[in-house]
Structures are given as structure tokens and as C-alpha cells.
Model the fold of this input.
Amino acid sequence: MRGLLDYHMHSVLSDGAASYEEMTLAAIEKGLSEIGFSDHVCLKPVVWAMQEVDLPVMTRQITDIQDKYGHLINIRYGIELDYFPGKEEHLHRIIQSLPLDYVIGSVHFMGDWNFDGDESLYGKWSNDEVYETYFHLIQKAARSGLFDTIGHLDLIKKFAVYPESDLKKLYLETAAIIKEAGMVVELNTAGFDKPCAEFYPSPQWLEILHSFEIPVTLSSDSHHPRQLARHYQQAIDLLKKTGYHQIVRYQGRKKSWLKI
Ligand SMILES: [Zn+2]
Ligand SMILES: [Zn+2]
Done:
């Protein structure tokens, strides 16, 4: 996908399979004009995320790769940071300590339950309750003002578990809060390869976001070079059909636009 960007990529520093260099070379090969790395950073001691003490290593590796390949492709420094209510100050300190271009705020936990990695607790509560808890966390993440982009907005559908009721009211309320917070939502194409078999967020969600004039950016959530820019033609078609004709770019946490 020539000239496009991919803003959600993981390397071996978190749970990806390849180095920054391997990912960058694959992105150049695919003709992307801009990429952003976004390794996991998590306050909980999980194996799939960078711990705070290792963050200087990440900054050094990103700087090295920018120096080496910056004449061939724009390379941005992002992180995918787990949101935890009550931990806002600590999260703020981490963000401030790094020379970031953007911060993706993601919810992967409800309490101690890592719901996108551990399927075992679905069914313990009603699906409506699970969805409500999840989207209330997304609302808090948006209101925190910590993040630039909301990661995989409707990740809770990953295992094709859906609410019993029509939760449109909850979605509209969530969209209003995202708009009010001035946040961007990524169209993350990874969901297409998961049991839910559609992008995060869904086409219906994208309609809601568009009706609130909430800007979007584009990403593949790659954990392997072959996943870069996956399903991008379909994503671009969907964005245009929904009414989006530009996507967000970042540099130094400032937004600009890329026409699609
Ligand atoms: Zn994630
Ligand atoms: Zn990710």
C-alpha cells in the first residue's frame, strides 16, 4: 500500500517476532511512507510488555533505526500503553519520560482479567455487563487526557462474544466522550484475523465515530513483518465508504493529515 502509514507495530521488545530493523525493511518493501512502532508498555509485570526499567533501551533502538533508515521512510516513536484507572499519575510520568510522537491508550484488562488473552472468564458475567465494564474503562481512558489514540476500540468482541442487548446508547455516550477529549481512534485491521473477523472498530462503530467527526488513523497491529499493512485495501475502501478522506499522522504528539 504505497504512501500509506502503519501506526501500530510490535517488535521483540514486547511480544513481536521481529526486530525494529526487520519491521522497517518490510515496511519499505511494501512501499509505506511512514510507520510508527508501538511496543506494549504495561504497569503489570506481564511477559508481553516492556517494563519501565527497560524503556531507555527502546528509545535508543528507535533512535538508531531512525538514524539508519530515516532517509527512506518516516519512523515514528509510539507506545501502546495499558490504561489502569487510578494509575493516571504513574502513566503520565512514563509518557513524559519518553520522546514520543504518539501514545496509544489500550484497555486489555478488567481488574486482573486480561480478557483478550484469557478466554476462560467469558460467561462468568452477562455479556452486557462485560461490554459495559469494558466501555466504561475506555471512557475513563479517554477522559484521562493521557493518550492520543484509542487502541482497538471494540477489542472486547475479539472472541466473537457479543452483548445480549442493543448497547447503542453506551456506544453513543462513549463516542461523545472520545470527541470531547479530542482523541483519535485507530482503524486496526488485526481483528479481521481473529474470531470476530472484522476490523477494530466495526463498520457500525466507524459510522458512529464519523457522525461525531472523530478523526481516525490506520494500523495493522503487526507482530510479524508479514502482517504489516494487512487488509489495507479493504480498510481504505471502508474508510472512504464511511466518509473519511484523510487519516491522522503524528509527530512530537502533534497531529497532521494524510489524504487517502
Ligand atoms: Zn493491544
Ligand atoms: Zn498491539
